[in-house]
Amino acid sequence: AYLPLIQNSPVYPLILDAKDRILSLPPIINSEFSKVTEDTRDIFIECTAVDITKAQIVLNTLVAMFSEYCKEPYTVEPIRVVYEDPSSAPIDRSVKCQGEASLQNGSASMNGWVFPRVNSRSMPFSLDYVRQLTGIPDLTADACANLLKRMMIHTSIEKATQAGILEASIPITRSDILHERDIVEDVAIAYSFNRLPVTRSYMLTGDALNCLSEKIRNFCTVCGYTEALNFSLSSAAENSSSLGRTPGDGKSSLFNPLE
Questions:
Q1: Three-state secondary structure along 88-140?
Q2: Among the record's GO biological process terms, what is one (predicted)?
């Protein structure tokens, strides 16, 4: 399934350790040497992809899940990835991340990019927008923050503006939060959908003649009749000469045919 990704590539990626032992041939297969066993104590997580955004999402998710079982829970040792051509690196050099300072070693640190980049994302959202979509008009900023806390999203009340704009801190495990309405969804989940106010949804009514025709059609179907479409939208020629028939040869014809 992954062979087409590198099938026509002039070069193949190969991951080696310091002793030139093969760890992986991504994205095809890992090596026997690098397989995980019950005696494994150190795990090197590598993620290769053709899309840097997707690669970081996968890497951060794996790191977050594995770190729960570390000797010191929720810790990870970052590494520096060095590109042969720094200008082709897909990461913005100006964006710093946690743990980068510990790997900087003079000018050598400028040759690489630190991974994983576990910075949380800041996302502003409107409290009025949350109230509007959830139907909870009296929802306060504190209550909203407590609901999001249950969804493992920290909300800064101190940075709330007079316009009711709050700021949520999105952890690396919530790559599914892309829009302000995703914040609203988490608020609704924490609040419970069953407790949300029920409002009537008004629907547009159809044309009276169409509604009557639909009722008659359903009634006739129940009675065992089969509906057949006629040629009312066909021209006289299509109903006669085009079918090898003579117009007006005694057969029934349309009262107002299309010409």
A1: HCCCCCCCCCCCHHHHCCHHHHHHEEEECCCCCEEEEEEHHHHHHHHCCCCCC
A2: phenylalanyl-tRNA aminoacylation
Q: CB under 8 Å, gap of 24 or more: what pairs does 95-102 form?
A: 102/78
pLDDT in tens, 123-149: 999 999 999 999 998 999 899 999 999
Strand order in the sheet with 29-30: 15-16, 22-25, 29-30
Nearest by Cα to 107 from 77, 80, 88: 80
Close Cβ partners of 117 (under 8 Å, ≥ 6 residues apart): 56, 60, 91, 95, 97, 98
pLDDT per residue as tens digits for the range 8-41:
888 888 888 888 888 888 877 778 888 888 888 8
Fold of 121-195: Phenylalanyl-tRNA Synthetase; Chain B, domain 1 (3.30.56)
pLDDT at 252: 63
CB atoms inside a 10 Å sphere around CB 63: 20
159 against 7, higher pLDDT:
7
Where do we find the tokens 């988490």? Answer: 186
**Single pTM value for the model:** 0.60
Q: Which residues of 188-208 are buried (b: 16+ CB within 10 A; e: fewer)?
A: beebeeeeeeeeeeeeeeeee
